[in-house]
Write a structure and sequence with these properties.
Layout: H1 2-13, H2 17-37, H3 41-63, H4 66-73, H5 76-86, H6 88-103, H7 113-129, E1 133-137, H8 144-147, E2 151-155, H9 159-165, E3 176-180, E4 183-189, H10 204-215, E5 219-223, E6 230-234, E7 237-239, H11 244-254
Parallel strand pairs: 1-3
Antiparallel strand pairs: 1-5, 2-4, 3-4, 5-6, 6-7
Helix pairs in contact: 3-4, 7-9, 7-11
């Protein structure tokens, strides 16, 4: 115990301003990583891996298991290789966020007003008829890889066009519509599914709507075919049971647009 106290005092005696700054930066990096993992399956994987490592370390030390101790001492290389493989989606999301932060230094002048009005109006009309739909608005992160999975349109957005696309049994109703600026660029697009748990009343359509916002900074509007409810997903978060006014207000705010006549 005395040796531990001496070692602790020796370590604290060597601390200076740079060492404190170094520790603070590392702590912030770990805190930021945990925030990215929070609410995802990666957090469960991280917790499971930590429990296994702690149990293995304690067993190796208490029972003096030489082989286990040797494996733990020489497993650093394997862990470094495994981390990018296991946590690839979270690492990609973190890098995309950093890139988007840099892009916002030079704000864009893209107008989304026509797209927002068309999406809002069509979502309300589709909800009344209980016609399912997913409409995705692109922001800074390009959605070309998802656009390529659908049918190219390059059309002026309108409520009538979007309602026709999502009319049941129409050729393009199965999948998502993607809008870029004030253009409908593609329909019947395939989106990645979220791995997070959603309420029972939310379907695969909601998982796809949430999934695209977990991997990119896009904003997605989804209409439930089962309940006729309108929801919006952004930044990995779902806003459910929206009326027309709240939906339109969220879209204007998230897309960085100023409403005409707004103070």
């Amino acid at each position: 115990m005395a040796e531990f106290g001496d070692a602790l005092r020796d370590t604290l005696g060597r601390l200076d301003a740079l060492a404190v700054l170094d520790i603070a930066i590392i702590a912030l990096v770990f805190y930021w990583a945990l925030l990215l993992f929070r609410g995802t399956t990666a957090m469960a994987l991280l917790r499971g891996a930590a429990i296994l490592l702690i149990v293995a370390f304690l067993l190796g030390r208490v029972l003096d298991l030489r082989v286990l101790n040797f494996v733990l001492r020489n497993s650093l290389t394997g862990i470094i290789i495994a981390i990018p493989i296991i946590f690839q989606p979270e690492i990609r999301r973190a890098l995309e966020r950093v890139g988007r932060t840099g892009l916002r230094v030079w704000p864009t002048r893209t107008s989304y007003q026509a797209a927002i009005d068309a999406v809002s109006d069509s979502a309300v009309h589709l909800a009344r008829q209980q016609h399912g739909a997913i409409m995705v608005l692109e922001r800074e992160t390009g959605l070309q890889e998802y656009i390529d999975t659908g049918v190219r349109l390059d059309a002026i957005p309108s409520a009538e066009l979007l309602e026709e696309i999502f009319y049941p049994n129409s050729p393009l109703h199965d999948g998502a519509v993607i809008l870029r600026g004030d253009r409908v660029v593609a329909a019947s697009c395939t989106l990645p599914l979220s791995e997070n748990k959603l309420p029972p009343e939310m379907s695969t359509r909601h998982r796809a709507s949430l999934g695209i916002t977990e991997r990119t900074d896009a904003v997605s509007v989804v209409v439930s075919e089962e309940t006729g409810q309108v929801s919006l997903a952004a930044d990995g978060r779902m806003y459910a049971r929206l009326d027309e006014a709240r939906l339109r207000g969220l879209l204007y705010r998230l897309m960085g647009q100023r409403r005409v006549g707004a103070l």
